[in-house]
Amino acid sequence: MRVPTGIFALLLAVRRQQHNESDATEKNVTELYTKAADQLGSTEAPVRLAGLYAFERLAHNDPGQRQSIVNVICAYLRMPFTPLDVTPSAAADGAQQKEYQGQLQEREVRLAAQRILAEHIKPDVQRTFWTDIDLDLTNAYLIGFHLDDCLVRRAVFDGATFSGDAWFRGATFTAQAWFSGATFTHRARFDKARFTCGASFHNAHFTDYASFREADIARAWFHGASFNDHVVFDGVRFTGEDAVFDDATFAETARFGDTTFTGDASFHQVTFNHAVDYTRATFGGDAVFLNATFVGGVWFRDATFTRTAAFTRAALTGDATFDHAKFTAAAVFDRAIFTGSAAFDRAVFTGDATFDRAAFTGEATFDRARFAGATSVDGATFVGVAIFDGTTFAGAVGFNGATFVGGVGFDSATFAPDTVFVGANFAADAADSGLIVNPREFDTVTVDTRDTGTRKANVQFLPTV
After folding, report:
1. pLDDT value, residue 296
2. Quick check: is 118 in a domain?
3. What is the Cα–Cα distance from 305 to 328, expressed in whole angstroms?
4. Cβ neighbours, 10 Å, residue 87
5. Which domain holds residue 458?
6. Which of 13, 43, 196, 390 has the fewest CB atoms nearer than 10 Å to its CB?
7. Diameter of the chain by CA atoms?
8. Cα separation of 43 and 105, whole Å?
9. Which has more confidence, 100 or 338?
10. So what's the pLDDT on residue 436?
11. How does strand 386-387 pair with strand 408-409?
12. CA distances from 112 to 191, 317, 378 (A)
C-alpha cells in the first residue's frame, strides 16, 4: 500500500510544531524563573513577596520545577536574619526607624515563605499538594513554624532556630529527619509525628515544653539534647534498632509512660534533675542506664525489660519505684546508689539479678519479689530498713559481705539450697527491732530442703550504736 506524500508532510509539520511549542514553553519557564529570582533578590520587601508568589505559581503549574523552587525558598530562609527585640522609641533617629521597619517587612516576607512551604506539603489537600519534597533549612531562623499533618521526604533543620512555637503534630517524614543542634525557644510539639527512617535531635536545645506523645520514630538520636522544661514521650514507639539519649539533660519532669523501645534504649550518663516516669514502658532491646543520674523520683512501675537492664553506677537520689516490673534477662544494679527509698515490690526477675556493692540509704523493699535466676547482693549496704517479706529466691543467692545497718525482714521468704550470707553484717538494732524478723533465727524463712539450706557462716551482729 502506498502512503500519500501529503500525510508525511502533515506528520512532519505536527512534529515541528510540537518541538517549537516545547522550546517556547521551556523558554517561558526559564524567563519566569529568572524574573522571580530577580524579584526575590530585590531590596524592596513588596518585590520580594511578588517573587515568592511567582515561584509558587510556577511550581504549581510545572511539577518538574517544584523541588528546585522549594530549594530556592529554603535557601532564602537560610539567609541570616536577626530580629529586633525592642521597638524604637519616639526619640529614635530616622536611620533606626528605617532599620526597624525593614526588619518588620523582612519578617513578613519570611512568614510568607514559610506559609508557601507548609501549604504545599499537606496531603489532605490534593489540589495543592506537592509530592516527594525535600526541605533543607540548615541554620535557618524560623518564626512560628507550623508543619502539622505535613508529608515530606527528607528534612534537614540542623542548627535551625525555631522562634515561637514549633508544631509538627501528625507530620510524616519518609526519609531521615535532622534537627541536630536546633534550638526551640518556645513550645515544640511532635505529637503523633512519624519518622519512618529515623530522626536526629543530637545536641538539640528545648527551652520550653516539648511533646512527642504517641509519635513513631524509627531510629532516634537525642544524645546531648537538653530539655529545660517538661517533656513528654508518653506512648512513643521507638521502632528502630536503637534510641539514644546518652548525655541528655532533663531539667524538669520527663514522661516515658507506655513508651515502647523495640531496639536498644541507651540513657548512658543521662541526667534527670526532676521526676521521670517510665510506668508501663516496654524495653525490647537492652536498656542501658549506666552512670545515669536521677535527682527526682523515678518510676518504672509495671515496666518490662525484655533484654539486659543495666543500671550500673546509676545514682538515684529521689525515690525509685520498680514495683511489678518484669526483668526477663539480666538485671544489673551493681554499685548503684539509692539515696531515697527503693521499691521492688512484686517485681519479677527471670534472669540473673545483681546488686553487688549497691548502696541503699533509704528504705529498700522487695516484698513478694520473685528471683528465678541467680541473685547476687554481695557487698551491698542497706542503711535503712530492708524488707524481703514473701520474697522468693529460686536460684542461687548470695548476700556475701552485705551490711544491714537498719532493720531487715525476711518474713515468709523462700530460699533455694545454694544460699549464702558469708561475711554479712547485721547491726544489733537490725536484729532486735520489733519491725523485723530476728536474723539470728530467720524465723518463718523457708529453705529448700533438697540441699544443705541457708548457710550463715561468719554472720556478725554489730553492737548497737
Report:
1. 92
2. no
3. 6
4. 10
5. 128-462
6. 43
7. 122
8. 11
9. 338
10. 37
11. parallel
12. 25, 49, 66
